[in-house]
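Please go through this chain and its backbone structure tokens and walk me through the local backbone shapes. Keep your notes short.
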Amino acid sequence: MASRQAPLGGLAPRCLWLLGAVLVMDVSARPANHSSARERAANREENEMLPPDHLNGVKLEMDGHLNRDFHQEVFLGKDAGGFEEDAGPRRSRRKLMLIFSKVDLNTDRRISAKEMQHWIMEKTAEHFQEAIAESRAHFRAVDPDGDGHVSWDEYKVKFLASKGHDEREVADKIKNKWDLNVDEESKGSASRGQCGACGSTDAGREVGEEVLENLKDRWYQADNPPPDLLLTESEFLSFLHPEHSRGMLQFMVKEIIRDLDQDGDKKLSLSEFISLPVGTVENQQGQDVDDGWVRDRKREFEELIDANHDGIVTMAELEDYMDPMNEFSALNEAKQMIAIADENQNHFLEPEEVLKYSEFFTGSKLVDYARSVHEEF
């Protein structure tokens, strides 16, 4: 499966007429789902060799959950770090309006669906480049001899070492074809506390045979024909980030459908897609979370995934929906993002609307910022 290259393109300099607006507007924010991207970034181990559960700019997580940060990822890109809660109010509002001016290609003070589509594709390209850089660093770590190929055994040694296992001991066992007994070692590690050398907790060290088997299956899927069980740098990228190759994206789609498909027809009905995760509702807050789960997934299923609106999602439809480089899907996303904040129903986004719905676009509420700035003047 060939690696997929993201389209790259520059944007011509445009007028930044919006800078003055950030100081005087008094707007309110709309409640939205809280972003978890920062928490994921903080919890990610530097030496983690496991393919990430979360893929920036991809609509679904590896477990089939909706990516709650998707709209912020494709709107902010590398600028996501500029909207922390402790950021200054004027700075945050100015940054948001600067982004608005970049999306507004024709400088008419409003964002069309086509302009938002172009921006989404550009931010997705940024995420692709970040994934390539991350994969390259991991590849070098698991390819110590620098021959440009990594075997499954080489990866397995480094992966288990990143989870707190003794690297030399694991390598010796693999070399001598001895049983690794990773399930027993994981259980035994529970009494040894945190791994100071690798920074991982006991929970992070628990690796069972099932995890290794799933990784091995994924490894084989990433191996381009004719299979040699050795991954090149581009194949290793597909192993870590399936969104970078058509074959691995299809594999990811099959895995998600397998987990959600209840009647075995290899398709998803609305009831299957919105089924609540395992667990019970113990209080009203839990009930609200479950209600939100159903509402969000129902809207996503009906408005975006089920392309022909026949009530059934096929593998092809889900693949198109999840493909971050699908321009048609990007246009649909652009229209949906505009509709969320389009209060005057003119099918465009205007500065006041972006500021008012800032939490949807940035994950941060700017309502207090706006009020404080307004009071200053």
About this structure: Residues 149-231 form one domain.
